[in-house]
Amino acid sequence: VQLVESGGGLVQPGGSLRLSCAASGFRFSSYTMSWYRQAAGKEREFVAAINWASGRTNYADSVKGRFTISVDNAKNTVYLQMNTLKPEDTAVYYCKREFGGYWGQGTQVTVSS
Asked: Is the Cβ–Cβ distance between 1 and 25 less than 8 Å?
């Protein structure tokens, strides 16, 4: 199982980024895939999740209405579209397969003017 995140970077407040998590070694079907984030000096926190089979999604209150999680079956990839970014969204973002607790290496998102 391997999860590789990409798409992070520096963006101004109010801007957008799309993170990608490419999975290998398994098929997404039947699994719940999630995004978490960890800001400097803080604990890792849940951001969003999607169940591949049902399509059901779940979001942290802090990102509801701004972030959207989605999947691409053909590419075995999960995305996190982040809009209206705020400085408090600055963190390392991690992809996770909930079953088995597999994590990616993370991608840095910095929101600053």
From this structure: yes
Rounded Cα distance, 37 and 107, in Å:
9
> Going by C-beta distance under 8 Å and a sequence separation of 6 or more, which residues neighbour residue 33?
21, 23, 49, 50, 52, 69, 71, 78, 95, 96, 97, 98
Summarize pLDDT for 48-96 with one digit per residue, the tens. 999 988 889 999 999 999 999 999 988 999 999 999 999 999 999 999 9
